[in-house]
Specification:
The protein is an alpha/beta fold and 234 residues long. It has one domain: Spore Coat Polysaccharide Biosynthesis Protein SpsA, Chain A. It has eight helices and seven strands; from the N terminus they run E-H-E-H-E-H-E-H-E-H-E-H-H-E-H. The protein has a seven-stranded mixed sheet, sandwiched between helices. Helix 5 packs parallel to helix 7 and helix 5 packs parallel to helix 8. It is globular. The N and C termini lie far apart (42 Å). The model has no long low-confidence stretch (mean pLDDT 91).
Length: 234
């Protein structure tokens, strides 16, 4: 069995080395003992810093995009090159907590799930406005009848067949919600897995407000698109 890990990265020179060190620990403690092959792709999404150089220095396979394509575009480029039986999406800012990826992979290897999503511990203090999470939660509930508290988490693992069955990875901040709806409607078993991962949290400043606004708009766009397709079929 082979594991492919895809890490989209935009100006992440301060985090990428420690994230890859965590994955090196995972490879040594988990993959080597189980005789699993692992490949890591860092998709440098048009960075202006030394993300590519630092990732390559840690032994990752680097895909350098000349211009910023966004998370969905970066992951599409990575997925074209991935050869694993299990494909994992991870953010670049997990730092050493990336070693927790083991918790996402084990349920798939043990045939308990087709897809796993990392469920982070609650963040202390107020980090966002709740509207984005509420939209994602109720949108997924409406289309699938299922409840997921971690639908926005970008840390996910898939059996290869799952990604192949849902087609192209969408653009924008609504990709996690859109993919989850498609996977659930196709009958795949999706499991939320508690992890001790840590990453940068979007705050309540102007930059955070802008990010949440973009995220809300993209998720709403995905939901409206799916509603239109459902009405067209009806």
């Amino acid at each position: 069995m082979k594991i492919s890990i895809l890490i989209p990265a935009f100006n992440e020179e301060k985090n990428i080395e420690s994230t890859l060190r965590g994955l090196a620990d995972f490879e040594e403690d988990f993959c080597v003992k189980r005789k699993l092959d692992m490949e890591i792709f860092v998709i440098d999404d048009g960075s202006a810093d030394k993300t590519s150089e630092k990732a390559a220095g840690c032994g990752a396979k680097v895909i350098r995009l000349e211009k910023n394509m966004g998370k969905g575009g970066a992951l599409r480029h990575g997925a074209k090159n991935a050869t694993g039986d299990i494909i994992v999406f991870l953010d670049a800012d997990l730092r050493e907590s990336s070693r927790e990826v083991r918790k996402l992979i084990e349920p798939i290897m043990n045939h308990k799930a087709d897809v796993t999503i990392a469920k982070f511990k609650p963040v202390r203090g107020k980090s966002g406005f709740g509207l984005v999470k509420a939209l994602a939660y109720w949108g997924i509930k409406y289309f699938t009848g299922k409840s997921f508290s971690s639908s926005l988490s970008g840390q996910r693992a898939f059996r290869r067949e799952v990604l192949e069955s849902i087609g192209s990875i969408p653009d924008g901040y609504g990709l996690e919600v859109g993919m989850l709806i498609d996977m659930l409607k196709k009958g795949f078993c999706v499991m939320e897995v508690p992890v001790n991962m840590r990453h940068d949290v979007t705050g309540r400043d102007l930059k955070g407000f802008f990010h949440r606004g973009r995220q809300f708009a993209d998720i709403l766009k995905v939901l409206i698109s799916k509603l239109g397709r459902m009405e067209a079929v009806a």
